Amino acid sequence: LKKRGISLEMIKKFELGLAPNSKNALSNVVLQKGFQKEIIIKSGLFLERKNLELIDRFSGRLMFPIYNLIGRKVGFGGRILTNGKKFAKYINSPETNIYQKSKILYGLNFAKSEIIKINQCYLVEGYTDVISLYQKGIKNVVASSGTAITIDQVRLIKRFSDNVSFIFDSDEAGKNATYRGVDLFLSEGIFVNIILLPDGEDPDSFSKKNT
Fold first, then answer.
1. Which residues are CB-neighbours of 180 under 8 A, at least 6 positions away?
2. Segment holding 26, helix H or strand E
3. CA-based R_g, the chain, Å
4. Closest CA to 66 of 22, 23, 105
5. Please, are residues 167 and 122 in contact by the beta-carbon 8 Å criterion?
């Protein structure tokens, strides 16, 4: 995180952490605490092997808690810390009773008052995009946690502002997602602005090079 230029203040605010490398660090703790196995599995934090052993879904990853609108943690995102291509770079909590990805915008619990105040919402793709912009004082920013915008996410933003600015990655996937998302926002009567970054840039990298 220090290497990526993320301050200690942001680490504390967004409660970033580390899941230990051990495959059973968390599962051992919750089993010892007396939680029922079926409840543990439903939480989405664990996987059950064929021998019925529980293993930690996020072991060895940088952890991003995902909050609902009132600031309760409902899921997690985990980023791999090695460069091997064997594992996905990011994994998220699966859908659970309390976490539906399509109905959550990362960072909205922190951004909502600023979005109302300025009547503008910046929409980015990922966790570090939100954190890097927030660190630069741009606090009216949320992430779709991926590229597919849903109508529920559009309506969430509409509760706080009727202006949205896309700042997606400059790659093909980011551009395509922007153009798909525009129609959804327009269908809800929201004014859309598109901020195109230079080739090869994303909000995280761009914010680090500029004031």
1. 148, 149
2. helix 25-32
3. 18
4. 105
5. yes
Q: How many CA atoms lie within 13 A of 71 on its CB side?
A: 7
> pLDDT tens, position by position, for the chain (211 residues)?
998 899 999 999 999 999 999 999 999 999 999 998 888 889 999 998 888 788 999 999 999 999 999 999 999 999 998 876 678 889 999 999 999 999 999 999 999 999 999 999 999 999 999 999 999 999 999 999 876 899 999 999 999 999 999 998 877 877 888 888 899 999 999 999 999 888 888 898 999 898 8
Using CA atoms, how far residue 3 sits from 44, 137, 167, in Å, is 30, 20, 23
Number of residues that make up the chain? 211
- Token look-up 């597919």 returns 148
For 152, the enclosing helix (H) or strand (E) is helix 151-158
Q: Which residues pair with 142 in a beta bridge?
A: 123
Q: CB-side exposure of 208: number of CA atoms within 13 Å?
A: 15
